[in-house]
Amino acid sequence: MTGGVFYLSGMCTDDIIYDPLPLYHTAGGMLGVGQSLLYGCSAVIRVKFSASKYWADACKYGATAGQYIGEICRYLLSAPEKPEDKNHKIRIMFGNGLRPTIWEDFQKRFAIPKICEFYGSTEGNTNIINMDGRPGAVGFVSVLIPSVYPVALLKIDEETREIVRDANGMCIRCQPGEAGEFIGKIVKNDPVRDFHGYADEKATAKKIVRDVFVKGDYAFLSGDILVMDHEGYLYFKDRTGDTFRWKGENVATSEVENVISKVANDTDIVVYGVEIPGAEGRAGMAAILDENNSLDLNRLYAVVMKSLPSYARPLFVRIVKELEKTGTYKLKKVKLQEAGFNPNTIEDKLYFIDNKQKTYVPLDNELYAKIISGEARV
């Protein structure tokens, strides 16, 4: 991954990389400092990201390359304009999660010649990069010689997000413009194409799909829904049901559901991500079946604060009298996700986390407006 970012982004050994990301994170440690270890680039490491100091630091240390995750770009764009915004020497910015809606505004305001958005995971084989700066794209795959890098988008059911198969039991490739799950062909003993899995065998099994295009082949499931255009550029659309991304971290819905079940007496619970205007990723929301109105919101707050990292704590709670299930008794979440958290269109009781009152408070129209406008911090 480190080498791919170095060569495909156009960095050189003389570059000075400004790295404000935590080094325990793959982006900051492997893809940032890793450039110094492998290629001799200089790295400027900031203990903690600061939107007000990012460009001042870049000028001070003569940085020529800068790192980001999507949240960082939004914070920088929201900060007051300063002379340092354009007086730096940064020629390349690389990272992941830059929202397409702010891409061009960000690039123009800070006069960045090249932005290299990448997509991937440390364990997966679906790593790609947008090496020529196409706004909004997370990567590129050749449509002329696809066998060079055997990845694909598989057609999925819009409701269940599960992979669809044809009459012969094979998976179906998506057409340009059609959203599907991103997969990578697994080739054993190939350092680029193999997938070694996790310590948990069940978790490993969930990341593999078999009999993809021919009997006996298998591939790594990224868990992400992407769209490819006619030229081969790929655009991130969403995550499949089991995870979503918030504050630059992946949130496992099953982990959050297990924590909430301790408070909700093992009732039906669906955790999913909802979009908030201006925020990167999706904020956590829990739909909880509470037929007897017995859920203790104060205890729920205390348990999620104690048991979950900050990025995984649900910001919103929706109390429901019924949760729809699929024909195979799986809880449906797509409609819930699409409904969001608008009290004007949702009849169920809605709540929002309040760290001052240490509980979940009713989400009314006034509070909703504050969240949408950015007045209420998320």
From TrEMBL:
Domain of life: Eukaryota
Keyword Lipid metabolism set for record: yes
AMP-dependent synthetase/ligase domain: residues covered: 13-165
EC number: 6.2.1.3
Keywords on record: ATP-binding, Fatty acid metabolism, Ligase, Lipid metabolism, Nucleotide-binding
GO cellular component: a single term: endoplasmic reticulum membrane
Residues covered by the AMP-binding enzyme C-terminal domain: 255-330
Family as reported in the entry's similarity comment: Belongs to the ATP-dependent AMP-binding enzyme family.
PANTHER family, sorted: FATTY ACID TRANSPORT PROTEIN 3, ISOFORM A, LONG-CHAIN FATTY ACID TRANSPORT PROTEIN
Name listed for the protein in its UniProt record: long-chain-fatty-acid--CoA ligase
Organism: Halocaridina rubra (Hawaiian red shrimp)
